[in-house]
Every structure is written in C-alpha cells, then in structure tokens.
C-alpha cells in the first residue's frame, strides 16, 4: 500500500498498550519488544501506554509486530490503542518522516499466524460527512474479507492478525485522505488467544 | 452531578474491557461482575469487550464499579474503553432511559480506595470548535485536582479511582452539552496496581 506520508509531513501516531492476561505479563511484553525493530519510529513508553510516531507505514509495522510477537506466546493478549493523524497540536518527532518506505518488521510478522478478533472505530474529526467516511471504510473492510459485523460503537473484524492489521491500516489511511490535512483517529482492540467463544 | 439524560432520550454507551494481568484473569473479572448491580443499564458482553448503555449516570456508575471491584484484588488491572453519546446510528436499549437518578453502585465503589493512572481523550464529532471543547475540559480536570499533564494524543490524570472517574464523567457530560444532540466520544485507559514507576 502507498503510504500516507509520502511527500508530506503528515506524522501518524499510535498510543497503545499490550495487555497479556498472565502473571508473567512483563516478560511477555519485554520479550516481544526485543524482537521488534523500532528504529524508524519515535517511541516512548510510560506506566500506562506506549506512543509511537512517524510515517504511517512504520507506525503500523511496529504496532503490529509488537502485538504479534506477544501473541505468538499463546498467552491471551490484547492490543488496545488509538491511531491519530493530523492532530492540530502534533509536531514533535518530525525527523522520523524522512525514513524510507521499507518496513523493518514485515517479514518476521508475516511468518506468524495468529487468529484475532477485533473491534475498531474511526473518528474523522471536524467533518460533516464523517458518517459517510466511516461507512465507506466498512465497505473496504468487507472487500478485505475480514469484516464480520457491526456492533454498538464499532465494527468487528476476524481473521489472521496480518490481514486484520492490513484492513485497519487501509481504513485509517483512506479516511485520512478525505480532506487536506484532515484529523482522523481510530481506536482498535485486537484480541488473540481468548478462552471466550467467538461472537461471530 | 446533574445527569446528561434528564428529560431527554440521550442514551450514553460505553464499550470497554477489563484487563487483569494475571493467570486468573477470568476469576478476577467474574468476581467483580458479581459485585456490581447492572440492572439500570443494557449490557452485553462478547469475546472482546462489554457494552453498557443507558443514562449517563448509570453507565459511569457501572463502568466504575466493575473496574474498582476488579482493581481492589491488587492485581494489575486496566480499564480501557470508549464512551459515546449522540451517535446517529444509536437506538436500541431506550427502555433503560426511564430509570431514576439513583446510582446503585456508588456507595460500594466509594468505600474502595484504589490509586489509578489514566490517559483519556475527548472526540467531539462534527464540530469546528472541537479543539476548544477539549481545552475547556482539560481546565475542568485541572479544577478537579486530578490532571497531571498532557501527553501525545491524551491527557493524563492521577489519583483515587473515584476522583478520576468523576473527572472523566464531568468532562464527557460537559463536552456532550456543547451542541444540541452532539455526538461525542471519549477514550479512557485507567490503570491500577501497575508495577511500573509512575511517569508524573
């Protein structure tokens, strides 16, 4: 996919957490982080979440890789975060915008097969047509074959983690291009290895 | 606080998950649920999240109670969810709007002291003044004494869980009143008992 950032300074960010439902949650997170190459994003972790910022390709590449490497442990792990582009208050970390398109973690992530269940929601800000923007991206998800159904306040996706991340990245990038310098956010809760029966 | 719903049919919803970082995460969640009186909200749980809907008072009352009863186990527990009001697609569950103001879980929740660290973000939809709406509610959080600082894409609150929930409820209700039938969403990640050093 053509990146969102090409030729512009549209910095993309994601503030997310990885929640391993296990006593050894610190180990699961630390081990996953060690397997991820985050050199192409600005990254900061605090006691609540991690924030990564840079070109859209690398933000999605790194977010996906951290989740996938945590989820391949078979522990019940959830990625829960918000992607953002065009926030009027955003500025820091622009130096990462000169990185090239090559995704540093795509090869390793693509080798891991993890089934996930996802709920995501798009929030195109300051846009009277925002419900149409959302509806259009639900159609994109349907075309990807990952869309399962709408639920209150979100859309549900099911499938391989790589396919689901590809869907939400495309939905986010498309929504971000509907206006010049538009501000769009997207929440996503992505769950792997849940003992609960899937609500398909 | 005067509820958002009084005399109107402004149904409020919250789609959230409770993430206990422990092997016995199912027990922690099930035990917390048993301590909560959810009779005044529409409630549905799937394999990713729980959705509660009804009057704003009861949505915040129930969300807070589930989190607090899970967090009092001393397990590292996170509440992560999105509150919503005014979504044009929203309708089901209106019967719960006739409930009175009395919060069924407030007394029990107020007895529990749990320190939390929180990142929250408001998204007033379809509103050219949305950045001002957000800035105004940051001022409200400062007045509550729970505001710690702004971070990329969110505001940080610290303090007792009851005080933090009171802050985000007031911020959400205020933001929801800026326009007639306005559509506002709010994300919140609320963390208790984290072994990480607080980033104050």
TrEMBL record, chains A, B:
<dbReference type="Pfam" id="PF07615">
    <property type="entry name" value="Ykof"/>
</dbReference>
<protein>
    <submittedName>
        <fullName>YKOF-related protein</fullName>
    </submittedName>
</protein>
<feature type="domain" description="Thiamin/hydroxymethyl pyrimidine-binding YkoF putative">
    <location>
        <begin position="11"/>
        <end position="90"/>
    </location>
</feature>
<feature type="domain" description="Thiamin/hydroxymethyl pyrimidine-binding YkoF putative">
    <location>
        <begin position="116"/>
        <end position="197"/>
    </location>
</feature>
<dbReference type="InterPro" id="IPR029756">
    <property type="entry name" value="MTH1187/YkoF-like"/>
</dbReference>
<dbReference type="GO" id="GO:0030975">
    <property type="term" value="F:thiamine binding"/>
</dbReference>
<feature type="binding site">
    <location>
        <position position="18"/>
    </location>
    <ligand>
        <name>thiamine</name>
    </ligand>
</feature>
<dbReference type="InterPro" id="IPR011522">
    <property type="entry name" value="Thiamin/HMP-bd_put_YkoF"/>
</dbReference>
<dbReference type="InterPro" id="IPR015835">
    <property type="entry name" value="HMP/thiamine-bd"/>
</dbReference>
<feature type="binding site">
    <location>
        <position position="50"/>
    </location>
    <ligand>
        <name>thiamine</name>
    </ligand>
</feature>
């Amino acid at each position: 996919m053509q990146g969102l950032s090409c030729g512009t300074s549209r910095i993309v960010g994601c503030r997310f957490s990885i929640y391993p439902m296990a006593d050894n949650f610190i180990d699961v997170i630390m081990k996953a982080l060690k397997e991820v190459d985050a050199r192409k994003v600005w990254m900061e972790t605090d006691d609540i979440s991690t924030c990564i910022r840079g070109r859209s390709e690398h933000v999605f590449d790194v977010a996906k890789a951290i989740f996938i490497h945590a989820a391949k442990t078979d522990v019940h792990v959830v990625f829960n975060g918000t992607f953002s582009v065009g926030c009027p208050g955003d500025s820091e970390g622009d130096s990462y915008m000169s990185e090239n398109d090559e995704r540093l973690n795509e090869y390793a992530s693509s080798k891991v097969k993890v089934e996930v269940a996802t709920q995501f929601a798009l929030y195109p800000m300051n846009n009277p047509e925002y419900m149409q923007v959302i509806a259009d991206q639900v159609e994109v998800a349907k075309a990807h074959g990952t869309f399962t159904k709408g639920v209150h306040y979100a859309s549900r996706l099911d499938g391989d983690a790589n396919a689901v991340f590809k869907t939400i990245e495309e939905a986010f990038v498309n929504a971000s291009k509907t206006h010049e310098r538009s501000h769009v956010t997207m929440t996503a809760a992505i769950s792997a290895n849940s003992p609960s029966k899937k609500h398909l």
